[in-house]
Amino acid sequence: MKCTECGFEAPVQNFRYLYNARIDASISLRQCPQCQARLAVDELAGEATQKVGDGEAPWGKSAGIEGLAEDNAS
Amino acid sequence: MAAEAAKDLSIQELEKEGQWWWIAEKKRSRRLDYLRKAVWKKGALGGNYAPGIKVDLEMPTLFTNMYNWWKYDPPMLRRAKALAHVLDNIGIFITDQAQLVGYFGSMPNTIAWRLDGASIVNEELYNEPGIMPEPEEESLKKVAELNSYWSGNTAVDKLARVLDPEDAVKFLSGAIGWGAPTSAYGYSGKDYEYIFAGRRGFLDIIEEIDANIEGAEDRTMGMPGPDILPLYERLQNWDAMKLILEAAIRYAGRYARLARTIAENFETDPKRKEELIRLAESCETVPAHAPQTFQQSLQYDHFIQIICRLEAHEGAWPARPDYYHWPMYDKDVNIEKNITGEEAMDLVGEFMIRAYEVGGFGPRWAREGLQGITGTWVWTLGGVNQDGSDACNDLTLAFLKAARLVRVSNPTFGFRWHPKVSDKIMREVFECIRHGLGYPSIRNDPLLIQNSMHWHGHPLEEARTWVHQACMSPCPTTKHGVQPMRMASATANCAKMVEYALHNGYDHVVQMQMGPRTGDARKYTDFEQLFSAWVQQMEWIMNTLVRTVNLGRFKDPEFYGRPFLSATYERAVESGLDAVSPVGERGNCWVTFFTWVENADSLAAVKKLVFDEKKYTMTQLMDALEANWEGCEKMRLDFVNGAPKWGNDDDYVDDLMIRCLREVARHSREMKCPCGNSWPALPENVSGNIHYASIVGALPNGRRLGDALYDGGISPGPGLDKNGPSAVLKSCGKIDHVGDGRAFLLNQRLSPTQMAGEKGYQLWKAYMRTWADLGLDHVQFNMVSDETLRAAQKDPEKYQEVIVRVAGYSAHFVDISRKTQDNIIQRTIQGI
Amino acid sequence: MATECKECKSFFPMNENPEKGDCVQRVVDPRQAYYKARPVDAGADASKCGTFSKK
Amino acid sequence: MGRRDQWKQVQNGMFTEVTSQRSVEDRETVPDVACGFCKNFSENAYASDGRGYCKQLKVGSNIKTDPPVYVMEGDAGLTVLFNAEAAGCKFFDRMDFVDTDGHEVADPSYRRVQRQMEKKVK
Prior knowledge:
The complex is a heterotetramer of chains A (about 70), B (about 850), C (about 55) and D (about 120). Chain B is α/β, with parallel strands linked by helices and about 850 residues long. Among the domains of chain B are: about 5-30, no CATH class; about 485-555 and about 575-745, no CATH class. Helices cover about 50% and strands about 5% of the residues of chain B. Chain B contains 36 helices and 18 strands. The mean pLDDT of chain B is about 95. Chain D is about 25% helix and about 15% strand. By secondary structure, chain D is of the alpha+beta class. The interface of A and B includes residues 61 and 62 of A. β2 of chain B pairs antiparallel with β3 of chain C, so a sheet runs across the interface.
């Protein structure tokens, strides 16, 4: 995997795993050991997609829900 | 929005924008505005204290000097003398505009250090960055010297020598529990019935103690026999109680003297002079005598809380202010009209601010588990009187209104809802939630009274006095019901139950054989083998924590001792025993269950995908978990999305949740506390779900080591409750909220847009009816949009006052770590 | 002769025992203003006190 | 050795070094090759008082002796301090990134929030 910020390249597990962006999606946050940038990582592709800055959430809004959860219970 | 820009907007415009914090600034009195802004925040920002906060070496030094001097005294008397020395000599201060006084540091920006609790905490303090008073080099020398004195001498050090070494090591691994098994870091209930309902001042109690001493001396100077032998120790305890009550009166007298000094020598404003004289009179009246005014009633309560905190690092603040201060409020505001409603509102708001400013040095696990606050000050409002009638009153309304004006994150409120609560009160409750405070949490009063009677045998009239002992657990405020020492170390990191069941009791994070060897999970051929291992690991975790806490409680009068708390407890004053002694207490224990729901979701995922559908083998699953799901992303997503999750009204997983809880409840009845009562479970989390994120390994619900755990109690996993709010309530309603445990925390996020106006209130009220009909005991709400929270992450300076409900407590959003912030944003916004 | 606390403007003796008193000072920190008090003996040595101010 | 004695040994290992009398210099000095810089060091999850576990070595090991004693089997990892001298340990493996940001929450493998470590890393 390659850091989008500094270009550091290493196997994905060498990037410090921080936490999931949402448990039901294959996006995680990892940290580059070289420049320490927080990166959004597509875990299926094993690719860093972008640096995640303060207030940024490239995965969207509340996990699983874009807007309100509808009341589907019968 | 910048402060300057906000000032130009009308209240209506700000309401539309949901900028409730600017509205509070515009609406509150000048005094409350000054006092609110004057507070130095003591909660840690994530895990670090804010710039400018200093550890106060004054109390530790004064205490240690006198403790060392009286080295031959018995424990309670020795501590009483050391504490009295602190009360007589610690620096005190009166903030401009203040009408209430009392802090447990020598300056407003200091945090107290409880150095007789645990060497571990003392060593941690030494290593902390940037919190020592200047010059740092000198302070470090002093800390090192104090640490050397207390090394081996603290309450936890003493207990560690008595505990079974295996229990001690496993507890201190940090994997299965937190807290410390000593009242040095405990929580104590206050015997409000004795002090406030009984209208006793400390001089009244001293009279009772004198009579008890006289009675005991008649016997110790009389016929020799074994029956008089325990009295010799009790006599010394009574001496200690008396000594500390007298010191408390002197301590209040010092404030009175300072107030008069300021009024007579410095103050030029006649109105403020008058206030200072009233403040002085207040401190001359209480705690020596029972309060005569509303101001004195609040001041009395605050003195008790502050002195208790000088005696021990109390992590909670059980209180019921609208109930116990109501008689004086009613007298001053309604009957005699001595003060106006607005003047009373200033006092109520300041009473909350005085609690908000309190903070002591906490070790990192406490700071991380309670980010943004310094303890769970959950005050109880509403409820019923001892005869079952509605206890809500004008002061309940005043507290709910004051909360929206001062917007502190601590204390928060837990509201005891019952069917007789008026619409007027419910609207005020809702307004607090709508204003984004995250509190009050709503508690089901009839159900929790029943629960208290079921688990701990409290008589009905006593159960009806209940207050939140910490975040969630009800506890009476009566002679035999009040609990002197709830130790947070009976807090289980429950996700380890399923983790250990899968790993043969071995913990790969702390590198230790923790639980029993229940078998190699790779060889399991049916689900029942896994479940049986889970039951054994659950019992082991609960047993280990409870054994440790029971022994800590039993030995506490010898290893620590609470002279002041004892002097305010009817049963201790009567018996001459330390308040912490189990004698005379009915018993009100519970095991807090952090990270609980992961068990049901993980077990359901294994049952479905491995044993029912046979999509994966146990070996494949264990390989993936050992690799922390690295390289197994598709499979991980299957375990998240292809298996049922709690909170969707799906019996497949809900039945498992109930089955787990019934096993826990069975075991809860088997374990006994030192009073001989049961140890029910109480699922809730504070921000322990974040603290444990890098301590709990990968789980079959699809989380990796590092991911935040669910936000707690019986709340579904963030984003995993996809069937809407009724489904969440229905799942939670399958739990027996009386027999399955002590209480069950439920977090819900609602949309501020949907909850706007009268329509929003009516929607919420309908939701609450369903909640009550389904028999849930708790629910709390976040009502701040994603947009606002992301904006606060981006520009924290502009959003300093945004509050969120974390779990069991509220915090200013900017004071919690990014991981915690993201976890809160991840929670599903329910449309109702 | 050594400087003593009782000679200072900040010293306020106790009515019941003038040999003891409070050192009372005004403090303005970045958030609030307040008066603080600390018990002192009237005869305590104040020669090294940074805030001593003769009455 | 019986169960109690075995765990007593672990308990002594966890406590002795941390709570023994140390000078300010002992407390402040962080050697260039210290356990806290090693990938195998995991901060104790309970206390941030500077103690941690070694992920490789088990109780009974001693990296201060010459030659060091390496015990690789056992029920509990070796307890070491963040500023223990590790120059003689063959398992020392320097970390690429030492996290001293105390604003985030516990991450035993990466985080070293002691004031002394912060000074050393910066």
